[in-house]
Amino acid sequence: MRKGRRLLSSLALALVLVLSFSLPAFAATTADVTVTAAPSYIAITNDPSTWTINGISGTGKIQPNTTYYAKGSTNETTPPSATVLDAECNFTVTNSSSVNIDLTVTWGAFTGGGADMTNSNAGTNGATTYGAYCWYSGMTYASKVIVKSTGSTAMLTGMTPATTTKKWGVEILTRTDAWTSGTSSTSTLTITATAS
Question: What is the pTM of this model?
Answer without folding.
Answer: 0.82
